[in-house]
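From the thread on structure requests for the teaching lab: each student submitted one protein with a one-line request. Submission from student K.M.:

"Model AraC family transcriptional regulator from Sediminitomix flava, tokens only."
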Amino acid sequence: MILKHQHFDLLQKTVLERMVFNPPLKANGSMHDEACFLYVVNGNSTLYGPTKKDSLQTNEGVVMKCGSYLNSWSKNENDSPSEAVAIHFYPEVLKHVYQDKIPDFLVQKKPQTSKNVEKVQIDQMIKTFVDSLLFYFENPSLINEELIILKVKELILLLVNTDNSDRIRSILQDLFNPEEYQFKDIIQTNLFEDLSIDDLAVLTSMSVSSFKRKFKEVFDDSPAHYIKSRRLEKAAELLLISQSRVTDICYDCGFSDIGHFSKSFAAKYGKSPSEYREKQLS
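Reply posted by the TA:
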């Protein structure tokens, strides 16, 4: 449940954003002509990109360039709300911020990075920057266009001077060139994650109906049947080659409910997971 959502805009686009919410929560979106810096003020999440995932915890941040993402926020141990801030970068906004004189480090050509997400080394300067944003979100009457421009410039300078500045610079130079991923690669990368068909459609930047049609074309099967079959096959394999508990295997194979997993496994193999392991190993 969203408890608080605030944003400050430039050129009718959200540039500075804050969200406070009660997890668990899944947030998804496609950044077709933007990139952003995401900072976790409080909480923990798994950020899924087209071909990789990253874990984020309190006081951690990432730079994300164009692409489709799904951010799955987990419940906090102390049941506290989660909180995150995001600073969005758009080509037209940056041109406005720099008065059409974009700094060289944003436009110089370098070999394209293969990463669409880069973890940022958070230092005290960035923490202080985030604290200053939170102050303005608590006192929104103080914010104006000049301050928004200053905060954008300040963040960019901080990002290109972090310990992993080379990789950050490389991503900044390529922020507005979305990477093309093969449909099949996205599915295979995320096959055993706890993601629904709707979630996978988001990562492929498709509507659910278009996703299902494309899936049938590529795999000659429906998404639901193919994904469940592959997950059950992996579970059967893990039951024989690992000592992991059935519950752990259930979650490792992308199932979120042990009861549903056991029922599906028995329907396919004629035995419960425990009985299957015992029978095969006896």
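TA comment: The longest helix spans residues 223-241. The chain has a mean pLDDT of 90.
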